[in-house]
Write a structure and sequence with these properties.
There is one protein chain. The longest helix is centred in the middle third of the chain and has 27 residues. The protein has one domain: Tetracycline Repressor, domain 2. The protein has 8 helices and no strands. It is mainly alpha-helical. Helix 2 packs across helix 3, helix 2 packs across helix 4 and helix 3 runs antiparallel to helix 5.
Amino acid sequence: MTKAGLYHHIENKEQLLLAIMNYGMDQFEQQVIHQVIDIADPLERLKACMARNIALVTSGSSKEVTIILHEHNTLTGEAGREMNARKKRYVRFLEATISEAIKRGQVRPVNPTLAAFAFLGMVLWTYKWFRPGGVLSPSQIADGMVDLFFRGLQPSQP
């Protein structure tokens, strides 16, 4: 496809970026949210969500997802509001799930918003340092991050 052909279908670069980001969010929602939303136990839902999110970010086919992470402030106006609304739905999902786990006594009382952003910070920064074929496999990273986030750095108590 030529540049002229591309712009026959897409008005400008921002519209193209929005289309790529929407595709990435579609992939994310299908491979992460839709796969965990029906897990009844909120703690298990969070763990599965983290593992699936890491699997998506570390997969070779996740370029659209990493574009969302890397270009998060590029969109303006209605396009920016549309993408931010989609991302906020994920944050709200995490906050609600964390709140549910707190109410059940599965995690200690913490600020659900702070916990949601800590969760996201761990998971979403992975795209910056992960290298396929590196020392850690995607599953080792997912297992390690789930353990680190949910059990912390404190040694096990006898």
